[in-house]
Amino acid sequence: MATEPETAEPVVPSLVDRYFTRWYKPDVKGKFCEDHCILQHSNRICVITLAESHPVLQSGKTIKSISYQISTNCSRLQNKVSGKFKRGAQFLTELAPLCKIYCSDGEEYTVSSCVRGRLMEVNENILHKPSILQEKPSTEGYIAVVLPKFEESKSITEGLLTQKQYEEVIVKRINATTTS
Amino acid sequence: MFPLTEENKHVAQLLLSTGTCPRCIFRFCGVDFHAPYKLPYKELLNELQKFLETEKDELILEVMNPPPKKIRLQELADSIGILQEFCEKDFVKKVCQKVEASGFEFTSLVFSVSFPPQLSVREHAAWLLVKQEMGKQSLSLGRDDIVQLKEAYKWITHPLFSEELGVPIDGKSLFEVSVVFAHPETVEDCHFLAAICPDCFKPAKNKQSVFTRMAVMKALNKIKEEDFLKQFPCPPNSPKAVCTVLEIECAHGAVFVAGRYNKYSRNLPQTPWIIDGERKLESSVEELISDHLLAVFKAESFNFSSSGREDVDVRTLGNGRPFAIELVNPHRVHFTSQEIKELQQKINNSSNKIQVRDLQLVTREAIGHMKEGEEEKTKTYSALIWTDKAIQKKDIEFLNDIKDLKIDQKTPLRVLHRRPLAVRARVIHSMETQYVDEHHFRLRLKTQAGTYIKEFVHGDFGRTKPNIGSLMNVTADILELDVESVDVDWPPALDD
């Protein structure tokens, strides 16, 4: 697996490339550009991340804080999972909120699950160091891990876009903004 | 010498009149030495007559009460033929023929026999009858004074089996011959017990009938004499037929073969990889080793286990990984060490994906050593690591100095679907680096058992901390992994 010394981009497929399929959900909850990227492992586990086009990941944005307290009674941090069958996990629907991101410019963003399933864990590393979310959104900066039901593992991606379809959406957006 | 004394006369007379055979009469009279039981049936009947000083005709007359039927020597109320034709040489020969036909290799055997549960009921009835009679003579008869049917049966048959098959009977033998008797005619004899002692008969999921021997015995111990006598005829009725042989089976206890294996393929799973009936990758470590053993030992099936395991794409080098294979119901079990060596050679010649060493027969207890290794012993690995940032030799030197590094590993995402979510504390005992180029280096590590190496290298989304990436402040990935050694000193190394 030799890499050409001159090029900046490595030839080596990344960890994500090797084990995961990328699925996208653009404009989540109707909010323009709040795109999410779901990394689906070959074993059906889904890692919820922000897509590169999400406002939080754009340059100039600073995250003030992140909170997993999504309502007065529910904190994603309280999620406790036990045993091989992951009993006790909070069950998520596609629109279930995972966390709230507060930016220094006053903007507030909600990250949603996008897939149905049991919540395994939320990323506590980004609580302590929110910049990780912006530096490594596809790996260390993940939001949450969700385990879909075995029967639904194929169907959960029905409402999502492939990488190619997502890229087309991006292109359309760019064209729309340039023409207007 | 006839084993009955004057004292036994009344009981013997009584039992004979109910149609009990001579051997059973001995049992109820507490005759507890083997010799009398082994005498031929006709001789026993003659001796018994003489002892009771009755004429043959009278004897027949007695036995004809109730309704006269043609006397069949096999017909009796008590052991339904078991201590008659079913312990004679002809029957033993028949069983031995089946044993020989089954193709097992054995140097001893344990014989197990199973009688229909309702027999205990008939025994109980006969005992009450005898007890009553002895009571008249002011003699007592405890249940334990009676020789058990199974015991007497084995006294007679063991030497016959031994002689016919040419091997000793040994309670510890791994080779078992089992005979199961049934008597469909009297199956309902024990059903009344369920009404009187319902708590003894709990339906178990895998048993066809609740009336097991254990349950019936339990109920018989509980039931009051009066209640029993109300429900069951004492003496028991004469059955129309003798019992039948339900099954004659042979089985050999499992034998164990252990060794160490090397894995040279990066495309071979430990166990067969089959999803929805479709095989995803050809063959497996366990099949490449076990298939040969299965054939040579002529076993029904096998169970493969090893001291830990490696991923499909990981090689196992060095001394290899200990494994043990349980061969279930083997037909051939005796092998010289030379033959085992040849078997090892055969396995090694048949595939270059795996190699086996130190192949040997071991006991079941020895398997414990192997599993001990899985949890307690250290392992050493060699990994080829890629980094996104360009690195120099000096950038990796510090890793050589890190000793007993504590890491916390959350259950890797790649196994999270089938393992509980947990955090595992593990120790990386030592590391040794070897610079390859600006984006690659080799890392040798010695770690605690149960450490996920791949995740230690790439960090698994930051869920293994610290990791090589975080230690070096780069994005690292693992390109190749080899197991260099599994530090378990079992099974014993063999020469050659």
TrEMBL record, chain A:
<dbReference type="GO" id="GO:0051489">
    <property type="term" value="P:regulation of filopodium assembly"/>
</dbReference>
<dbReference type="Pfam" id="PF01597">
    <property type="entry name" value="GCV_H"/>
</dbReference>
<keyword id="KW-0966">Cell projection</keyword>
<dbReference type="InterPro" id="IPR033753">
    <property type="entry name" value="GCV_H/Fam206"/>
</dbReference>
<comment type="similarity">
    <text>Belongs to the ABITRAM family.</text>
</comment>
<dbReference type="GO" id="GO:0016607">
    <property type="term" value="C:nuclear speck"/>
</dbReference>
<comment type="function">
    <text>Actin-binding protein that regulates actin polymerization, filopodia dynamics and increases the branching of proximal dendrites of developing neurons.</text>
</comment>
<dbReference type="GO" id="GO:0030425">
    <property type="term" value="C:dendrite"/>
</dbReference>
<dbReference type="InterPro" id="IPR011053">
    <property type="entry name" value="Single_hybrid_motif"/>
</dbReference>
<dbReference type="InterPro" id="IPR039169">
    <property type="entry name" value="Abitram"/>
</dbReference>
<keyword id="KW-0009">Actin-binding</keyword>
<keyword id="KW-0539">Nucleus</keyword>
<dbReference type="GO" id="GO:0030833">
    <property type="term" value="P:regulation of actin filament polymerization"/>
</dbReference>
<dbReference type="GO" id="GO:0030027">
    <property type="term" value="C:lamellipodium"/>
</dbReference>
<dbReference type="GO" id="GO:0003785">
    <property type="term" value="F:actin monomer binding"/>
</dbReference>
<dbReference type="GO" id="GO:0030426">
    <property type="term" value="C:growth cone"/>
</dbReference>
<dbReference type="GO" id="GO:0051015">
    <property type="term" value="F:actin filament binding"/>
</dbReference>
<protein>
    <recommendedName>
        <fullName>Protein Abitram</fullName>
    </recommendedName>
</protein>
<dbReference type="GO" id="GO:0032433">
    <property type="term" value="C:filopodium tip"/>
</dbReference>
<comment type="subunit">
    <text>Interacts with F-actin. Interacts with G-actin.</text>
</comment>
<dbReference type="GO" id="GO:0048813">
    <property type="term" value="P:dendrite morphogenesis"/>
</dbReference>
TrEMBL record, chain B:
<dbReference type="InterPro" id="IPR048741">
    <property type="entry name" value="Pus10-like_C"/>
</dbReference>
<keyword id="KW-0175">Coiled coil</keyword>
<comment type="similarity">
    <text>Belongs to the pseudouridine synthase Pus10 family.</text>
</comment>
<keyword id="KW-0496">Mitochondrion</keyword>
<dbReference type="InterPro" id="IPR039894">
    <property type="entry name" value="Pus10-like"/>
</dbReference>
<protein>
    <recommendedName>
        <fullName>tRNA pseudouridine synthase Pus10</fullName>
        <ecNumber>5.4.99.25</ecNumber>
    </recommendedName>
</protein>
<dbReference type="Pfam" id="PF21237">
    <property type="entry name" value="Pus10_N_euk"/>
</dbReference>
<keyword id="KW-0539">Nucleus</keyword>
<dbReference type="InterPro" id="IPR048742">
    <property type="entry name" value="Pus10_N_euk"/>
</dbReference>
<dbReference type="InterPro" id="IPR020103">
    <property type="entry name" value="PsdUridine_synth_cat_dom_sf"/>
</dbReference>
<dbReference type="GO" id="GO:0005739">
    <property type="term" value="C:mitochondrion"/>
</dbReference>
<dbReference type="Pfam" id="PF21238">
    <property type="entry name" value="Pus10_C"/>
</dbReference>
<dbReference type="GO" id="GO:0005634">
    <property type="term" value="C:nucleus"/>
</dbReference>
<feature type="domain" description="Pus10 N-terminal eukaryotes">
    <location>
        <begin position="80"/>
        <end position="250"/>
    </location>
</feature>
<feature type="domain" description="Pus10-like C-terminal">
    <location>
        <begin position="256"/>
        <end position="487"/>
    </location>
</feature>
<keyword id="KW-0413">Isomerase</keyword>
<dbReference type="GO" id="GO:0046872">
    <property type="term" value="F:metal ion binding"/>
</dbReference>
<keyword id="KW-0819">tRNA processing</keyword>
<keyword id="KW-0963">Cytoplasm</keyword>
<dbReference type="GO" id="GO:0031119">
    <property type="term" value="P:tRNA pseudouridine synthesis"/>
</dbReference>
<dbReference type="GO" id="GO:0160148">
    <property type="term" value="F:tRNA pseudouridine(55) synthase activity"/>
</dbReference>
<comment type="function">
    <text>Protein with different functions depending on its subcellular location: involved in miRNA processing in the nucleus and acts as a tRNA pseudouridylate synthase in the cytoplasm. In the cytoplasm, acts as a pseudouridylate synthase by catalyzing synthesis of pseudouridine(54) and pseudouridine(55) from uracil-54 and uracil-55, respectively, in the psi GC loop of a subset of tRNAs. tRNA pseudouridylate synthase activity is enhanced by the presence of 1-methyladenosine at position 53-61 of tRNAs. Does not show tRNA pseudouridylate synthase activity in the nucleus.</text>
</comment>
